[in-house]
């Protein structure tokens, strides 16, 4: 999306020039100034997209596995994909209006790179959604397991550690951390991995759903920070930040993900669940 005055506005500026001549979209001069007039126009633009059946946030195929794959080891969502997408977009539009009227906190929170944003949303699915990571203690550390895992055939396998699902108790998640990638980045990664660009005009793609207790970002895993440099090997092409890496180590030395089951018979660990805000969407709906 094109640059704008705030992160919450960038999504709406995307494609706005194409709709400049729609009657009543941009409105006239505002006694509150240019910025207020712009926000009013952006709100009408969002309403126009909704009427036309357009979405601001589209569920990307990389996230389909969290709904469809019975062997998926991370947070699985027992909810219709289209209905989930509609809930997300309704909440998003509601938050945009609140921010524009009351100067509330940003709707989209900056992620680890300019193309990545977070939308924190209350868990509306229910108590079946539990937190994706828990603290390591003396009572549970003997239950930790390790294995090499990749999310797709094109990614390099990395060593991960986890608690098998059921071996520890995970509290119900209060929030979803919805990780969004810009349309430009999604297209860029698709080309880099030799895939066709998705046919979508939605400014944002929802590439991962993290279940957690808090409405703010948790650090991605250290190995993900490192792998993100390698776009041709499943990363996103973002250079390593030593500061971010050390923050990641500080958190993940005391935490581990909880896997869906015991990871037998080809089950996959979710390397983007509870640890990876840099989840790269290079897999199709049938891969991990």
What does this protein structure show overall?
The structure is a single chain. Helix content is 27%, strand content 16%. By secondary structure, the chain is an alpha+beta fold. The protein is built from seven helices and nine strands. Mean pLDDT is 77; it is low at 1-32, 261-268 and 271-288. It has helices at residues 7-13, 34-51, 65-68, 81-102, 183-192, 222-227, 242-252; strands at residues 57-59, 109-110, 116-122, 133-135, 145-149, 158-163, 175-182, 204-212, 255-258. The strands form two sheets. Strands 1-8-7-3-2 form a five-stranded mixed sheet. A four-stranded mixed sheet has the order 4-9-6-5, with no helix packed on it.
Short description:
This protein has helices at 7-13, 34-51, 65-68, 81-102, 183-192, 222-227, 242-252, and strands at residues 57-59, 109-110, 116-122, 133-135, 145-149, 158-163, 175-182, 204-212, 255-258. The chain is of the alpha+beta class and 288 residues long.
Q: What are the secondary-structure elements, in order, as H or E? A: HHEHHEEEEEEHEHHE
Biggest sheet statistics: 5 strands, mixed
Instruction: Assign the structural class, choosing from mainly alpha, mainly beta, alpha/beta, alpha+beta, or little secondary structure.
Output: alpha+beta
Number of discrete helical segments: 7
Radius of gyration: 20 Å
- In spatial order, strands of the major sheet run 1-8-7-3-2
Spatial gap, N to C terminus: 28 Å
Mean pLDDT: 77
